[in-house]
Automatic annotation (TrEMBL):
Keywords: Flavoprotein, FMN, NADP, Oxidoreductase, RNA-binding, tRNA processing, tRNA-binding. Residues 310-331 are annotated as: Disordered. Its EC number is 1.3.1.-. This is tRNA-dihydrouridine(16) synthase. The keyword Ligase does not apply.
């Protein structure tokens, strides 16, 4: 059975986006944005801010469990924070070893830890020891920092540290987000470890999913920017696996999701600036998945008032042209 995980994406996939994308169907699990652990055991409100789902059994409104992701370099401090997150209700802890941010990497966290597999081993072991045995611990890695020479050692270090699961973003830190993702390495990792594994990187379409599945041999996949660009991507992948061909959402249906997002952000007390910023960011990222997102973005990018932005989306929502299937986007 194919498992689909919504990727953690800092500054982008907040709990409302998790709610909307998991409601769109296809996803089995979500992961919070990373919580950067550097000096202290965080108080409960920090965990609730990143993961409001902790108030509702740590599941999205449509029932998908949400793992809490931690990032840092101090094994004991990560362990303490992990134990507290579990006390608050986290069903699992994911550890971030993939973040490419310069600030984070200067402080020896995120992807810079991949330079030495022992770092991964020590952190995973400390987190594993700090949380109850029935709570899964997982790690998310890239194929390496500057190059891929340590990709197998790092994966083994995660397994030997006691993690139950590994997610691999099939690129090095230096490769950033540049295509391609090197799915062929995932097959080699899968053969070298015995814990379960999720493939990640550059799945934008059902066809990409099929190629990634065939090359990696994985049965679990994490979707990031592809699910932001096409909110129904996970649903279409699941339909494909069930032998059905689900037609891609039309732009009007996507606009319903964006309009719902504005309402949810307002409900949470987000400033109008924040609401407008998030909508522009999302529409901008949708340009890779939906043709009408480009003219829409050009029109909304200068709008500052959320009311005006909302009206524009609402008008497009009623436009008959956007109720029909779209032409494929030119590559
Ligand atoms: C804006 C942005 C924020 C991200 N934040 C996180 C994060 O908080 N934790 C994490 O493990 N990965 C993070 N990632 C990496 C994604 O989870 C994912 O590994 C990456 O985007 C590759 O998958 P994709 O090609 O499907 O997008 C982020 C990526 C982007 C583009």
């Amino acid at each position: 059975m194919t498992q689909l995980v919504l990727a953690p994406m800092e500054g982008l996939v907040d709990w409302r986006v998790r709610q909307l994308l998991s409601a769109a169907g296809g996803f089995d699990q979500c992961v919070t944005e990373f919580i950067r652990v550097s000096q202290t055991l965080f108080p409960a409100h920090v965990f609730y801010r990143y993961c409001p789902e902790l108030h509702q059994g740590c599941k999205t409104a449509s029932g998908q469990p949400v793992l809490v992701q931690l990032m840092g370099h101090d094994p004991d401090l990560l362990g303490e924070n992990a134990a507290f997150a579990v006390e608050l209700g986290a069903p699992g802890i994911d550890i971030n070893f993939g973040c490419p941010s310069k600030t984070v990497n200067k402080r020896e966290a995120g992807a810079s830890l991949l330079k030495c597999p022992e770092n991964l081993f020590n952190i995973v072991r400390a987190v594993r020891a700090a949380v109850p045995g029935h709570i899964p611990v997982s790690a998310k890695i890239r194929l390496g920092y500057a190059d891929k020479t340590l990709f197998l050692e790092n994966a083994r270090a995660v397994e030997e540290g006691g993690a139950q699961h590994l997610t691999v973003h099939a690129r090095t830190k230096m490769e950033g987000y540049k295509p391609p993702a090197h799915w062929e390495y995932l097959a080699r990792i899968r053969e070298a470890i015995s814990i379960t594994m999720t493939a990640n990187g550059e799945i934008w379409t059902v066809e990409d999913y099929i190629r990634c599945r065939d090359i990696s041999g994985c049965t679990s996949f994490m979707l990031g920017r592809g699910a932001i660009a096409c909110p129904d991507l996970a649903a279409r992948i699941k339909a494909h696996e069930a032998g059905e061909d689900l037609q891609k959402q039309c732009w009007a249906d996507v606009l319903d999701i964006l309009l719902a997002y504005i309402d949810l952000l307002a409900q949470d007390g987000a400033t109008e600036n924040h609401q407008a910023g998030r909508i522009k960011q999302w529409v901008s990222m949708m340009r890779k998945g939906h043709g009408p997102a480009s003219p829409c973005f050009d029109e909304i990018k200068r709008i500052r008032e959320i009311g005006e932005l909302r009206e524009k989306l609402q008008r497009d929502r009623e436009n008959p042209e956007y109720q029909r299937p779209e032409e494929p986007i030119a590559a």
